[in-house]
């Protein structure tokens, strides 16, 4: 199950963490993979990095 773009903000914290984990696994942890993950989640790359730090991913 993947998050639809622009829907990440409406998810609960646990679901948000899981969605981020899933897209990082799918696209990889490289900078390019994180850019693709952020696009998939409908958030900026800066927001993705902030959430990675917040959730300890």
From TrEMBL:
SUPFAM superfamilies, sorted: Homeodomain-like
Q: Domain of life here?
A: Bacteria
Pfam families this protein is in? HTH_8
According to the entry, every stretch annotated as the DNA binding HTH domain falls at: 14-54
Q: Which InterPro entries match?
A: Homeodomain-like_sf, HTH_Fis
Molecular functions per Gene Ontology: sequence-specific DNA binding
Coiled coil region boundaries = none
The name this protein carries in UniProt is DNA binding HTH domain-containing protein
Q: Which organism is it from?
A: Citrobacter freundii
